[in-house]
Amino acid sequence: MTITDSPPSGEAPPGPRGRVVRRRASGDTERGFSRIFRWIATGAGALILAVLAAVALFLIARGWPAITATPAELADSVPRYPDDTSLVAYVGPLVFGTLLAAVLALLLATPVGMGIALFISHYAPRRLAQGLGYLVDLLAAIPSVIYGLWGFLVLAPVLKPVWFWLGENASWFPLFAGKVSATGKSIATVAVVLAVMVLPIITAVSREVFLQTPKLHEEAALALGATRWEMVRTAVLPFGRSGVISAAMLGLGRALGETMAVLMILSPGFTYSLHLLEAGNHQTIAAYIANDFPEASGLAVNTLIATGLALFVITLAVNMLARWIVARRKEFSGAN
Amino acid sequence: MVGALALTLAACAPANESTGDATGDETTDGGMSLSGELSGGGASTQEVAMEAWRATFQSENPDATVNYDPIGSGGGRENFTSGAFPFAGSDAALDDDEMAAAEAICGEGSVLEYPAYISPIAVAFNLEGVDELNLSPETIAKVFKGDITKWNDKAIAADNEGVDLPDTDITVVHRSDDSGTTENFTSYLNTVVPDVWDFEVEGVWPVEGQESAQGTSGVVNAAEAGDGTITYADASQVAGLGTIAVGVGDDFVPYSAEAAAAVVEQSPRVEGTADTVFVYDLQRDLAGTYPIVLVSYQMACATYEDEATAALVKGFLGHVMSEEGQQEASDQAGSAPISSALIGEIAPEIEAITAG
Amino acid sequence: MNTTISAAEAMQQTKEMLTASGQRRKNVDRMMTVVIWFCFALALAPLVSLLWTVLGNGIGRMSIDFLTLSMRNVFPGDPGGGIYHAIVGTLIITGFAALISVPVGVLTAIYLVEYGRGPLARAVTFFVDVMTGIPSIVAGLFVVALFTLILGPGARIGVMGAVALSVLMIPVVVRSSEEMLKLVPNELREASYALGVPKWLTILRVVLRTSVAGLTTGVLLAVARVIGETAPLLIAVGVTDSFNVNPFDGRMMTLPVFAYREYSQGNAPCREGDLGCVTDIAFQNAWGAALTLIAIVMLLNIVGRLVNRWFAPKLR
After folding, report:
1. Chain B: residue whose CA lies nearest to C71
2. ABC transmembrane type-1 domain: from which residue to which, for each copy (chain C) (predicted)?
């Protein structure tokens, strides 16, 4: 039996790789069930592509009438649609709002999530670590409807004084300018709730990766006289980097597509405003679809699905960017 | 195998549900009880009333199950006109295109459409120390448009002598979703004070940059969360808030179910439709009525291909459009019962639903 | 975090770091310890607040009746009835979703890590990420469109919800499983091959066994991700007050949909003097359902962890 390949990530653990990777040209080294198993696994991958293609096809087919319609037709059948606006100009603020909320959430959640992951993997007392990790996982178990209720009924009143304070004392900073929302239903509150929602995802994946740091690397660092933080910085973080980026991307996926929590908390509006504390300025695509779908009919449904297509494209773009970042930094992997 | 599993699991049915072996038992009125499953859906305004109607209907017909998906008026109309829902609820009547599509499903001239749920829309506010206020339509329009920004504004004070009004900012909270409530409220403002409220009447709120929330409970919660907020919502939901008596002519009329039902009773029926289509052109300025009302329609076919469906639709909607059914909705959902005269016109059309 | 440096720079940096003054390094170390503890405390705050809110609002509604009755024939404002039908619906629909997603997801991860090369593997890796960005409501709409093609309009059955949830769940399973499989040291695989074990057995017995803890965590996260979905289930499965265990026929209720609908209903308008009517019963029902949902997920987590402990080989 020969091994056919090393893992595709370029992070293969040290070993005499060159000598082991030895493939026969035809690939007929796999006999019997090995071959069937390969087909099953490949089939699963292909199935995912098929499903995604079907979803994309559905989005394009149902969104197409809106994409090809004239602004006048759209203004006629979509209640919110302003006159003389192209579909791109209409969807633009939604794309902006979606990205703004998700990026803010990720900015808040990624450092904290890594901190928690490190805490569980390297700082917490051994005996407690697993239980504590479980506690954080619980955050992921809470349905988004509950996040919506909690964010609106509990968190918003707590944050309101903070936002008012910022609005009074830091309004020179463009993000905190403008009239502070009297109910706390602003994108700032949404970002905090989204950050809490993506935290367990980022934590869980980072934690598992940090825990897998080769013990030898850690011990080598400590043997050289490194403090615990230096060990983390030189051995754990570089090893876990691709995992952390992966985790952040998973979190971003959730933040971009989150519907109910945003729907229940945010006072929506359609502008490119950067005033995070103001109500009625921002809206995310997912919440927009959920908000308007129930009453939509005809071309309005097509328009909603066209915005769904836009979210799809955003995710595509974000992932391309992430892949590019990971690929660019591949040449130095701390693990090897 | 899955079927067998389902059967085994069905034995774990909760105690408040019959297991289905009591077929053919007599109902209280002596007829055979209905059985089967009927699933419709649409406007979420009718959801609570539907809960009451279904509970009574299912109690009388233990083998029948009625479901109502609160997916929104648009969803209700779309599913009805595509034949997915045998009956639907909607805050707006079918438009011409939808009526054509519905006739393609039901048959020419055999679409049934009638008001089933009438509810006053309250203008409600949250202002410390104030429980009731009088406001003229013009002031209401200016407040919601954002022209009046303080609670102690002259226009508000003029209608409310002796009320101590604080110097609080007014925060308007509107529905963020496309809703029949918004459409009826803006239609009222547009009819009564068109020179102030110069927006098109639509289901989405026309003023930008204000606070908003999704659904009735959303706006009510948002209004409760801030001081100096004002909103509009189905009157049955505003218990925790102050409400406004609306100026009609020279009087100020607080919301009440009777005053709201009177609007539909005194408004003319839209002409040029089939006999089975009861759609009303609401009049917003009739003396003695509470002018801001929401009328939610139900739609069904006069004939169904399937006998069981026809019987269930007839039985269930017949219950909805009966004196008891309307009283039930009024008790349980706070709606305005539809007048006996109107029931007398609509009920026979439902009674005439047939299969074939 | 130093991530943008070359190997030579890193070595240089490490040298400098280790030869720097001891006191400063100790201070930095201490500071980072505090920061990391603080991060953890920061995450606990919303968790405690959330659980406290749900527990405080939901516990009052908990009773045997609430857990064993359905909402059939319950009038608005009536404090009777329960969420049994929604509990059963959630378990069945999520169970079917997991039944679809876990094999597909884990097999895809295996494909990517063990076999994947060439354009197909690259496409799968990339598009799995894209798939995480499908908004849940779009998944619901897609499934309704799909099943309308198969079953005609008006079909609302439990399996539709399960398929919609699978669309959301599969990418999460793939992504986390892939990460976990990658972490299995190649030495283990090589040792297995050297002993003449065929590849598929190596994957099943060595790779999956080694990573089972991580895989379980990933799957549990994915289940948690979808068990609380509302929008797609409302569209694809509809709502019902009655008990239904057959995912291939008829509507089903689920806990998140139930919680959301009860919240949306708001206060019941009780007549004065009607003692059988509780004004805020709908909110109580919503919180009660939320509490039950969280309890179910906690239970699943505990079970998953026990399974882990029994089956996972000790790596260290």
Report:
1. B16
2. 87-304
Pick one of 3.40.50.12780, 3.50.50.60, 1.10.3720.10, 3.40.50.1100 as the CATH number of C63-311: 1.10.3720.10
Which of C166, C120, C123 lies closest to C143, judged by CA?
Answer: C166
Task: Give the C-alpha separation, B315 to B34, whole Å.
Answer: 8
Domain boundaries defined on chain C: 63-311
CA Rg, chain A, in Å? 24
Task: Give the minimum alpha-carbon distance from C69 to chain A in angstroms, rounded to a whole number.
Answer: 23
Comparing C-alpha atoms, which of C216, C217, C218, C193 is closest to residue C206? C193
Terminal alpha carbon distance of chain B? 36
**Cut 0.90: pTM above it:** no
B207 in contact with A, Cβ within 8 Å: no
A203 contacts in chain C (CB < 8 Å): 43
Q: Cβ–Cβ of A181/B98 closer than 8 Å?
A: no
Joined together, the tokens standing for residue B101 give 């599509």
The rounded distance, in Å, linking the Cα atoms of B198 and B181 is: 18
Q: How far apart are CA C4 and CA A202, in angstroms?
A: 21
Q: List the one residue out of B31, C131, C165, B303 whose CA is nearest residue A311.
A: C131
The whole-angstrom distance between B88's CA and the closest CA on chain C is: 12
Alpha helix stretches (DSSP H) within chain A: 17-20, 33-68, 71-77, 87-118, 126-141, 144-150, 156-169, 187-211, 215-223, 228-231, 237-257, 260-265, 285-292, 299-328
Q: Is B177 an interface residue toward A (CB < 8 Å)?
A: yes
Cα(C82)–Cα(C76) distance, rounded to whole angstroms?
A: 13
What helix, strand, coil percent values describe chain B, rounded to 5?
40, 25, 40
Minimum-distance CB partner of B211 among A80, A267, A295: A267
Task: State pLDDT tens for residues A273-302.
Answer: 888 888 888 889 888 888 887 777 778 888
Helix (H) or strand (E) holding C224, with range, is: helix C208-227
Three state DSSP letters for B226-284: CCCEEEEEEHHHCCCCEEEEEEECCEEECCCHHHHHHHHHHCCECCCCCCCECCECCCC
Segment-wise mean pLDDT, segments of 10 residues, chain A, 336 residues: 42 43 47 82 91 90 88 82 84 92 92 89 82 77 83 88 88 83 88 91 83 84 84 84 80 83 88 86 88 80 88 80 67 41
Looking at residue B105, its amino acid is I
Residues of chain A numbered 154-183 and touching chain C (CB < 8 Å)? 154-155
User: Residue C1 and residue A135: Cβ atoms within 8 Å?
Assistant: no
Q: Do A312 and C104 touch (CB under 8 A)?
A: no
Q: Where are the domains of chain A?
A: 33-332
Q: Which two tokens stand for residue A40?
A: 């099953």
Cβ-Cβ contacts under 8 Å between B and C: the total is 122
Q: What is the pLDDT of residues C209-221, one digit of tens each?
A: 888 888 887 888 7
Asked if A254 and C225 touch (Cβ cutoff 8 Å), the reply is yes
The residues pairing with C176 across neighbouring beta strands, listed in sequence order, are none
Minimal Cα–Cα distance from B228 to chain A, Å? 9
Alpha carbon distances (Å) from C293 to C84, C147, C164, C257: 12, 28, 19, 11
Q: What is the CATH number of domain A33-332?
A: 1.10.3720.10
Mean pLDDT of chain B: 85
The SS3 assignment for A10 reads coil
Residues across chain C: 316
- Measured from the Cβ of residue A10, the count of other Cβ atoms closer than 10 Å reads 13
